[in-house]
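Quick review question:
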């Protein structure tokens, strides 16, 4: 039986791991095929995200999201260019109109690449950009930009090391295995899971010819 990206529970009889894409209801959350989370639902992990929010959460294909991960969106921010950060306008009884959009911090969309592994209890802050193949260590707090195929960890998350040398990283970014058909990916599994990176390089060179 071929893998189906529209299956909610990819492990028979186990409901604590789901493919995210077929469960999404919020049109401002975009998730690629076969990305999963170690939980029975996803959208509660996306916080401060309202019908009027301006940003989007975009996640690529084949990402692995552990339990306890939180994607914090831009509407978590408070006005910072005034002497008080208290959000009077959100609470009953206070005489304040909502601030202008330009008075509120806005970091843009949160974008996660393909084949990204996000460890347990990670917090991803608004506007974060995580490149393909990155690994985020458990309990990290991530903001800004994470380069492709880089391991980061800590609070704030900082680069630990690149996963591969620059040549292989460049090849992986050109190859984009996650965009292949299911049938092709099934045939590529021996390469995708081979720990001998020199053999992997030679194989990818052949594919890129």
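Suggested answer, residue by residue:
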């Amino acid at each position: 039986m071929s893998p189906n990206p529209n299956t909610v529970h990819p492990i028979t009889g186990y409901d604590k791991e789901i493919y995210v894409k077929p469960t999404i209801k919020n049109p401002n959350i975009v998730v690629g095929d076969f990305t999963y989370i170690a939980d029975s639902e996803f959208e509660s992990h996306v916080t401060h995200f309202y019908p009027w929010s301006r940003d989007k959460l975009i996640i690529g294909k084949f990402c692995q999201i552990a339990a306890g991960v939180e994607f914090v969106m831009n509407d978590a921010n408070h006005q910072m260019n005034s002497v008080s950060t208290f959000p009077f306008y959100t609470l009953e009884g206070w005489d304040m109109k909502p601030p202008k959009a330009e008075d509120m911090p806005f970091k843009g969309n949160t974008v996660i690449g393909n084949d990204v592994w996000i460890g347990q209890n990670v917090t991803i802050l608004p506007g974060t950009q995580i490149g393909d193949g990155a690994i985020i260590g458990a309990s990290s707090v991530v903001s800004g930009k994470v380069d492709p195929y880089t391991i980061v960890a800590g609070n704030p998350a900082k680069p630990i090391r690149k996963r591969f040398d620059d040549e292989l990283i460049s090849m992986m970014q050109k190859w984009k295995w996650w965009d292949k058909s299911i049938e092709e990916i099934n045939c590529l599994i021996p390469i995708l899971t081979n720990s001998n990176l020199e053999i992997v390089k030679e194989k990818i060179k052949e594919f890129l010819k």
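Why it works: The chain has a mean pLDDT of 96. Helices lie at 166-175, 182-192, 197-208.
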